[in-house]
Amino acid sequence: MESDPYANRSPYSVGVSDFHAGINYERMRNERLRKTQASLKRHNMAAAIFVTMENMRYATAVRGHPFASGLSYALVFADHDPVLFETGSMIKQQRIYCPWLNPENVRVAYCWLDSICGAEGAKEQAKKFANAIVEALKENGVYGERVGVDALDEVGRSALREAGVELVGVKPAIMEARRCKTPDEVACIETGVAISNAGYMAFVDHFRAGMRERDGGAIFHDAMMRAGAEACGGGVRSKYNTFDVYHEVNTDRIVDPGDLVTVNACSTKFAGYRLCIYRSFIVGRKPNQKERDWYKRCFDRVYGVIEAIKPGATTADAAKALLPAKTWGYDEEEPLLVAEVGHGDRIHLRGAGDQPRLVVRPSADFPARDGDRGRVPRGRMGLRRNPARGDGASHRKRAPDSQQLAGRGNRPGRRHPRLGRLPRRI
């Protein structure tokens, strides 16, 4: 009998209702904030200033402004309620739609937009920013204690130091908090994968030779948005664009019969959780034996890494399944960073997702700890125990691969019945 009654439940869909228990967002918000606060305490920080959207959203469940960082930011305390600093025209809206924040803790933000106003103007705004932070620290009795910062620029850091705030890097603490997903977070990720599968099935059903890459991208994105995606990313790459040119997607290139087409859902997100999923297709004919053999090699490589992830193993064990750089025509491993990096699905705008991660340089010096969740990490790997479940069970995540992704359904470990294992003809 599992201690957690909702650990293995999947949500019905993207919606909620009164007659079934799906994703419990209130519980997820509370658990993420508690994890953040606990991690700040472990790292001896009284508070942290989160400027990046992913950290703000994780700790306070507030969406940031992707077009201009700094328009909003959060001051999260280890022992007190968080304070959201928001652009003035949105304060009233945030007080209405984010009732989990104390209304008096939603305050005006001071922003210099990467010094677009000039050095003197930026310094003036940063002084107002620092004074507002100091006021909040004093209100909560922690002025003079250590305060963490993530991506705050030097203008803001200098202003805080001049105001007497002791700054430390918060990245280790927040990454530690985000590393182990709660059951509701896992359900969000599963729902996101299901949304991506809706996009892939629409692509399979409607894309044909003679159409442009961007036509396929439109089919793909439209289906995912209709299925409930918060935002869509990625798209279609064909023929020579499928491997080395990672982010040149949805071009005007007309796809010919027999072309290899790679479709990725990178940065498509649901409830803030971003995906990085790839699938490959052959257009207009069945894959030949050479293509099948290459596909199998890639498939075996990816799942060979996954199967090696277990408590006590190291990245050196997982890396045995990787192919040497010379296989792809490179003399060194570093140029393959994007092709050979594995990461977990995450609330993350930049970089390669939540920890842990695996890159092309394996190491035997970082063994997996009992309880590390199944992902392919940098430096160490393994399964993370879900504390609510009380066991070592894991929702395993595959390392994304630029050559292929075999169908596994919307639960990691489950194969999609139509998308299948081999490269599919469309």
Descriptive notes:
There is one protein chain. The chain has about 425 residues and is α/β, with parallel strands linked by helices. The chain has 2 domains: about 25-180, Creatinase/prolidase N-terminal domain (Creatine Amidinohydrolase, Chain A, domain 1); about 180-425, Creatine Amidinohydrolase, CATH 3.90.230. About 30% of the residues lie in helices and about 10% in strands. The protein contains 10 helices and 14 strands. The chain has helices at about 25-40, 55-60, 90-95, 120-140, 155-160, 170-180, 185-205, 215-225, 290-305, 315-320; strands at about 45-50, 75, 85, 105-110, 145-150, 165-170, 235-240, 260-265, 270, 275, 280, 340-345, 355-360, 425. The strands form 4 sheets. It has a 6-stranded mixed β-sheet, with helices on both faces. It has a 4-stranded mixed β-sheet with strand order 7-8-11-14, with helices on one face. Strand 3 (about 85), helix 3 and strand 4 (about 105-110) form a beta-alpha-beta unit. Helix 7 (about 185-205) crosses helix 8 (about 215-225). It is elongated. About 40% of the residues are buried. Residues about 355-365 and about 370-410 have low confidence and may be disordered.
Instruction: Going across the biggest sheet, name each strand in turn.
Output: 4-3-2-1-5-6
Number of strands: 14
Name given to the CATH homologous superfamily of the largest domain: Creatinase/methionine aminopeptidase superfamily
Mean pLDDT figure: 81
Please give the oligomerization state of what you see: single chain
Ranges where pLDDT stays below 50 over 5 or more residues in a row are 356-367, 369-410
Helical amount: 25-40%
CATH class of the largest domain: Alpha Beta
Count of DSSP H/I helices: 10
**Main β-sheet: number of strands, strand sense, barrel status?**
6 strands, mixed
The CATH architecture classification of the largest domain is: Alpha-Beta Complex
Structural class, by secondary structure, is: alpha/beta
